[in-house]
Design goal:
By secondary structure, this protein is an alpha+beta fold. It has three domains: about 180 residues; about 100 residues, Helix Hairpins, CATH 1.10.287; about 150 residues, 2-Layer Sandwich (Heat Shock Protein 90). The chain contains nine helices and 14 strands. The longest helix is centred in the middle third of the chain and has 53 residues. It is rod-shaped. About 5% of the residues have low confidence.
Length: about 475
């Protein structure tokens, strides 16, 4: 079942079905318990009425039993012999004995011939009425069984009450109340549930299907538009955004934001490839020309020029490779290094600079950062190269600890500076503000882009502004180690 609508409808139907079945079973059990309890109460009342008469020594054949057709009664003695039954009782079960024919008791009540003399003697001896018996006040025992009265069999709830006559004879009265009302009510409710449950589940399934289809309609529109975008490869298209403020609307907005970022990334990648191809064409063409001239006229081969073009080509290839690794999400190293020491080492290795670099590093320490030593050295080198390219007389680099737990590296020069509206554009790839400068002197325009990407990958940043003494100032900010 691959449809979300079908799964939702099926899930809702199953949940509702389980809930209704559980509730229905509970209702039936409660209804049956209540009706059975009422029948038991009726049977107890009848049983106690008969037991009260037995406690008063009413003869067995003179017991008054009400509603004999609805309340069958069976009286047994301590030996399990039947001593009295209600009128027209033909069969019984569930009371402990199924006999319905009374037999003479070992201690019959009044009304039998053997008791008359005893009664007279008691009256003569005591001069008053004989002692009364008693009815067991405890909760009666309840059982379910059947009885046949006047040819009709039915189920009954029997209550068993014990009574003791004045002579100490214990008798048990089994009185029944019909369960027909309970069975009819339970059957009616069960039938109504069996008929109504499928109808209700069908309604639940249909409503869930319609509601889910309506709710998922924007998702289908998004899917259809995404399929069209994939087929056409047109990243400028956007999926429709519903007017609602629910999860689907947020999904549509997120999808459009993703498409916007993807479009920008693809455009940036295309420009990068085009610019890289353009930058590589010049040194390759120059190197090829020199080699072809050297092959035809060895005495005209410009070896220093060929070496310079090869070095430039190698540096450009290294820059492109580093940018590709950064774009691929390569994580920097996690080694701890002193940024002041790193700056001193980088400056000490720059023996061919046309302008000496002035270094200002405090001796108090606290300049440790975490990251890749090679990449951070590359950032400092690129900043110094940029400053050397534009400075007139001085280049200064300083390292200090900032107040918020960062370490700052500032590289300043006394050149012409950077216009305020160009201070962000210079960090784009293959951007050179001085178009009149030759590629050999100005580079490929990748140094500052690499420097900012590396800084961002290390959790910091790189900004450009004006120096107090004129010229440009580049500030590298990195979080301190720990």
């Amino acid at each position: 079942m691959r449809s979300v609508r079908a799964r939702a409808a099926l899930g809702a139907t199953v949940v509702v079905a389980l809930a209704l079945i559980g509730a229905g079973i509970a209702v039936l059990l409660v209804l049956r318990a209540n009706l059975t309890g009422q029948a038991g109460l009726q049977a107890e009342v009848v049983a106690r009425e008969v037991a009260g008469q037995l406690a008063l020594d009413v003869p067995h054949d003179r017991l008054e039993m009400r509603d004999e057709e609805d309340h069958p009664v069976q009286v047994v003695d301590g030996d399990g012999r039947v001593v009295a039954v209600s009128k027209d009782l033909e069969a019984i079960s569930g009371t402990g004995t199924d006999r319905v024919a009374p037999v003479p008791s070992a201690a019959p009540g009044r009304g039998s011939g053997s008791d008359d003399g005893d009664d007279d003697d008691l009256a003569d001896d005591g001069g008053g009425a004989p002692d009364r018996g008693e009815v067991d006040p405890d909760e009666p025992d309840f059982t379910n069984g059947t009885a046949t009265v006047d040819g009709e069999s039915a189920d009954y709830r029997f209550a068993s009450v014990r009574a003791t006559t004045s002579r100490g004879v214990t008798l048990t009265v089994h009185a029944g109340a019909p369960l027909a009302a309970e069975q009819e009510a339970v059957g009616t409710v069960r039938g109504a549930m069996l008929i109504g449950l499928p109808v209700l589940l069908s309604v639940v399934a249909g409503v869930t299907w319609l509601v889910t289809r309506r709710a998922l309609r924007p998702v289908e529109d998004i899917r259809r538009e995404m399929a069209a975008i994939t087929a056409s490869e047109d990243l400028s298209r956007r999926v429709p955004e519903p007017d609602s403020r629910d999860e689907i609307a947020r999904l549509a907005r997120t999808t459009n934001e993703t498409l916007t970022a993807l479009e920008a990334s693809v455009d940036r990648q295309r420009r990068f490839v085009a610019d890289a191809s353009h930058e590589l064409r010049s040194p390759i063409a120059s190197l090829r020309t020199q080699l072809e001239v050297g092959a035809a006229h060895p005495e005209l081969l410009d070896v220093p020029g060929a070496v310079a073009d090869t070095v430039r080509l190698q540096a450009l290839a290294a820059d492109l490779l580093l940018l590709a690794r950064l774009d691929a999400g390569e994580r920097p190293g996690r080694s701890t290094l002193d940024l002041g020491t790193l700056v001193r080492e980088e400056v000490s290795q720059r023996v061919g600079d046309r302008i000496p670099v002035t270094v200002s590093v405090p001796d108090s320490g606290g300049l440790e950062v975490t990251g890749s030593r090679g990449q951070l050295a590359r950032v400092i080198g690129n900043l110094l190269d940029n400053a050397e390219r534009h400075a007139r007389d001085t280049v200064t680099v300083s390292v200090r600890a900032a107040e918020r737990g960062d370490v700052l590296v500032e590289v300043t020069d006394d050149g012409a500076g950077i216009p305020a509206d160009e201070r962000e554009r210079i960090f784009e790839r293959f951007v050179r503000l001085d178009d009149a400068r030759t590629r050999d002197d100005g580079g490929a325009g990748l140094g500052l882009a690499i420097a900012r990407d590396v800084a961002v990958r290390h959790g910091g940043g790189l900004t450009a502004d004006g120096a107090p003494e004129g010229g440009a100032r580049f500030t590298l900010r990195l979080p301190a180690a720990g």
